[in-house]
Predict the structure.
Amino acid sequence: MAALAAEVEACTRCPRLRAHCAQTALTKVRRFRDQEYWGRPVPSFGDPDATLLVVGLAPAAHGANRTGRMFTGDDSGTWLFRALHAAGFASLATSVRRDDGLALRGAYVTAVAHCAPPDNRPLPGEMVACRPFLVRELALLGRVKVVLALGQIAWNGALAAFAAGGCVLRPRPRFAHGAEARIDERRVLLGSYHPSRQNTQTGRLTQPMLDAVLTRARALA
């Protein structure tokens, strides 16, 4: 896993994304202008013996692209780590930087794209270029029983990664909040709305809704 993380950090497959990450790290935003940004591909992290794999969309420009750790330092991460802590998967309920002491217990966090994209929208070709990392993570994390996809793009990315690993589901399961799909005799794919500000501030995703999905993930894992 450490070798794979190093490959992710050194990846240059998507010039548009690399340029955006680097430029964002230079310009910053006012509230973080005194901080040094990570500004490169963000590796996955967590417990190598995880039974739960959480798949997000991509690092946020001023979140993980700043801190260097998935979902760390932005509003989406605030929601996710609170729920992971409540379900017993995280040692802390908040995560603000890489060295804040948070540790995942039985969980691993990744994304379908490892670079922060403009407007939070990686292009289809960029997600395809990043997919081999997720395929390899699924192979290396041999104890995973639950894959939790945060949002439809992550759901589709997870299905594509399973297919690349030789597991094609027919009929193709449809994404919905709380959706479940049996991947094989060992693994289940769960769906949740992404804890983005667009979803949480409009009430499309509430804390009880996210907690319910993590409670289900805990039961299955």
